[in-house]
Amino acid sequence: MPQDRPAVVVGVDIGTTSTKAVAYDTDGRQLASHSVGYPLDDPQPGYAEQEPQLILDAVLKSISMVVAELVEPVAGLSFSSAMHSLIGLDAAGNPLTPSITWADSRATRQAERLRAVPSGLALHRRTGTPIHPMSPLPKLLWFAEQEPKLFESVAHWVGIKDWVLLRLCDALVIDHSIASATGLMDIHTLEWDSEALTIAGITEEQLPQLVATTAVLPSLTPQVAAVTGLPERTPVVVGAGDGPLANLGLGAVHPGMVACSIGTSGAMRVMVERPGVDPLGGVFCYALTEHRWTVGGAINNGGIVLKWAGAALAPDLGEHAEEELVALAARAPVGSGGLIMLPYLHSERAPHWSALPRGAYVGLTHGHRREHLIRAALEGVCQQLALVLSSVRSAGNEVREIRAGGGFARSGLWRQMLADVLGLPVSFPAAHEGSSFGAALLGMQALGLIPSIDVAADLVRIEETVRPDPAAAATYAALLPLFAELYDALVPAFTSMRRLAPSLPAEPEPSAGPPM
């Protein structure tokens, strides 16, 4: 499509705690952005849910604010969203449940039961989604067992992006990327998996229509057009999940290019051309397009660990003392004087995919001070990511390049620590809004404004490449096997702690979990 000037697409990223709309032109320039936050509710321990209407309102407001700021016309909208959410709708499309987010762990027992049967791993390998309480499949089992009357009354089960698109465009669809994170779709056939549906106790008719991530919905409803300031005929690209789109937003679009992100939580993903997981089920496999998939793993505990360390170990520094905490950590030696922290403050996902573990310090002596404890916490996050990277390799993937982003990337110490622990150079792109930029790029391809999402590799400018320090890398390489062994060694203790928990005095009330 010839253009007198670069066309503009608005990437809309529906996150766990906010929605951000960002306008980009086809040269990759950011023209306008706006974000609107909303709460993540935890009415009971283990619950992490949201009010769908608040999220829809945030989507509409963020889009309208960006449109009002732009001089250029909008060629289209394209969507990203957090994965694994679940909402029950009535026949008219009205929510009967809150949006149950990925951070919700109420379905832990159902997930453990599924994982324990011989077909559990086969289900993971067929659907690409680990058997974990984050996944909609165990959540559906929970509703069937704990809320049977509600379960029977639900006409459709959807994710948050599916519901938002229903309200924007009056179309009930789910893209292959979001569907690949439900535990209900066969990633090899791109169809709903009959065994998974039988386990969940639902039918295909209760799920949205499966469509490609590049599918275009041709118009907005008149009401949405009026609210956003866009023409009704504005095309809407269905888009994908935030994880695969973060790879795209970092320019990690070719095989061998790994995208690492550490925000409040963290993830490690590599783009592949054919779907598949490792033999032990240590990674997920989620779609970006029919010929691009991301293999990797997410961890629950990223920057949230530094926040905890500040509150627990250095409250005298105040609430927003990240720089001071990192400076404290820098005073401790590489390896924290033999102190190891398992950073499982919010249980964990990859590569073990278990809600069982808790955090632990191992190797504590009278010589350790709070700088050692803080540094060990940061090192633990990086070591957990190293385990995920190992699982990515075990799935048969070459790792040639690592690109990293997220809030942690502002810290020079953490940048160097990540390169040292992974034992590889790590490149840090200049600031882009990750998933929203990925959504915009996917939308540009779908609308014929760019030839391919491959242009992402050229549009993303590398700001710095950090190379591992040989001595530090050797220390971390020696410690990593011990870090990995500690999980298995402590599983019996974690199990006993969970069994004893109901008889112990009330523990501090847990948060709902970190946003992804």
UniProtKB/TrEMBL annotation:
Higher taxonomy: Bacteria, Bacillati, Actinomycetota, Actinomycetes, Micromonosporales
Family: Belongs to the FGGY kinase family.
The Carbohydrate kinase FGGY N-terminal domain, residue ranges: 9-249
Record-linked SUPFAM superfamilies: Actin-like ATPase domain (SSF53067)
Entries under InterPro entries matching the protein: ATPase_NBD (IPR043129), Carb_kinase_FGGY (IPR000577), Carb_kinase_FGGY_CS (IPR018483), FGGY_C (IPR018485), FGGY_Carb_Kinase (IPR050406), FGGY_N (IPR018484)
Domain Carbohydrate kinase FGGY C-terminal: 259-446
Name used for this protein in its record: Gluconokinase
Keywords for this protein: Kinase, Transferase
Lineage: superkingdom: Bacteria
